[in-house]
Design a protein that fits this description.
This protein is mainly alpha-helical. The chain has a domain at about 30-80. It has two helices and no strands. It is elongated, with a radius of gyration of 20 Å. Keywords: Membrane, Transmembrane, Transmembrane helix. It comes from Sinorhizobium fredii (strain NBRC 101917 / NGR234). This is Transmembrane protein.
Length: about 100
């Protein structure tokens, strides 16, 4: 099993890249969703009191989904890449018990 000292660089690489990318994609996706719903609703004549929960909750959910996709991209990009002399590998385990 790896120690904290051995995994620190990989963990930091995953953390800062995924944090920035998730925040950026989540905010952009949520804003785009809110704009589209607000624009279409305004064009159709729907009152803003009715639209507010839709674009608030919908934008939040779309932002979370976009953030997860961005995180998945960062993890996939990091697997197999050498970072500080260490690298992550994706292995298929035949058993849930370590060493079997």
């Amino acid at each position: 099993m790896a120690t904290l000292k051995e995994t620190r660089r990989i963990a930091w690489s995953l953390y800062w890249k995924s944090s920035l990318l998730c925040l950026l994609t989540g905010a952009v996706a949520g804003a785009v969703f809110g704009f589209i719903v607000g624009f279409i609703g305004g064009f159709a004549g729907v009152r803003s009191e009715i639209l507010a929960p839709i674009y608030t909750w919908g934008g939040s959910i779309v932002g979370l989904l976009a953030g997860f996709v961005a995180f998945n991209f960062v993890v996939a990009w990091t697997i197999g890449k050498s970072i500080g002399g260490q690298q992550l590998e994706l292995a298929v385990a035949t058993s849930f018990r370590e060493g079997q």
